[in-house]
Fold this sequence. Notes:
It is a single chain. By secondary structure, this protein is mainly α. It has 3 domains: 120 residues, Calponin-like domain (Actin-binding Protein, T-fimbrin, domain 1), CATH 1.10.418.10; 111 residues, Calponin-like domain (Actin-binding Protein, T-fimbrin, domain 1); 113 residues, Glutaredoxin (3-Layer(aba) Sandwich). The chain has a 4-stranded mixed β-sheet. β1, α13 and β2 form a beta-alpha-beta unit. The longest helix is centred in the first third of the chain and has 18 residues. It is globular and about 70 Å long. About 9% of the residues have low confidence.
Amino acid sequence: MPAPAWVAIQESTFTRWVHVQLGTDADGDGDVDAGKANLGLADVFKTGTNLIKILEKVTGKGIGRKYKENPKLKLQQLENLNIAFNFMENEGVKLVNITGEDIWNGSLKLILGMIWTIIYQFQVSRMDIDGKKNPKEALLEWIQSKIPDFNITNLNGDWRDGRAVCGLTQALGKELYDGEDVIASIGSSEQALENAKTGIDTAHAKLGVPKLLTPEIITSKDCDEHSMVAYLSQFRDALRAEAPVQAKAKVFIPVTVVTAAAPEPELEPEPEPEPEPAQVSTAVPPLERAPDWRTYEGHDLGGRCRIRVYFSTTTSSLMIRKNTEALQKLLEAKKVHLRPDFEPWIPIDMDMEKPHRDKIFEKAGQRETPMLFVDDEFKGGFEKVMELNEMGELQRILDY
């Protein structure tokens, strides 16, 4: 008995998504690198290595355990898959009736189920950080707010004439391109295939949205909701085409400029400021200090003797995403990511319970991310941290 039509559509969609994550389709245009195009999902995931790479990318965290990068034996491949499954469990990913053995055996439907769970957990979910809505409902409401004239009521059937994809692309394009149209005109409902092609191509060229779907799939009655949701949820990360190159946030780096200017008149040297007294005099590394090594105030967030950055994975704000990227680069330049007391970037809109999130907001006195905490104290958002760095104060704070 042949597989239902939706299986082939979902396999096509998820295969494209996988290649985007692995970088074998780096620009998301649907053209996979030579030698990789004919690999089915069973081949991609059999050794477990690619699954680990995808999980590290979508979570922004290291897997935390050594694994075989080029395993030859079944035992080694299953060990990789088990490492990946344990990591997913620790990240709150709930896989029902799917094991590493199933993935190794190449069970297509179970592989599709696993990929959908990963997409849903790390791409679709957590849009509403207060946890008030079902993630798909939140996505639908966001789309409705962008294209209210299209009367979208679902994430499947209302998209088959291709017009809504064009409309969403047009709406986001105007936001990113200062009111400029990115699509000249949208065809009638009878021009479904042409509309879908225009929307998909323009969304990719102007907004950087990977082509997970083809025009034929979008307009097909067999197109399943999972495929549509995987595609549409990417629009929240839309960027101007030139943004990755030209719109990077400034990192302040002191520069000494030497000129041949005339000598200035001599002045009496100013007395050097007295050094600030250290809060605590200790040579004990942070993670080895006693719990009461200093007095703590406010909510206990569990970050004592640790450096943490809280950030949002689902924000639709281009500025916040740029600020987060710039802060990450600054901390990496200072080698903070190599310190044992640095905890990997903590998403404030992932599995975090609302009461704990509210404590973070209350302690910081703000809700805008990213937020730097050192030794369970809020040290500032992006602008403040950059200011501290420019003043030469940030390193002293990090060396608490």
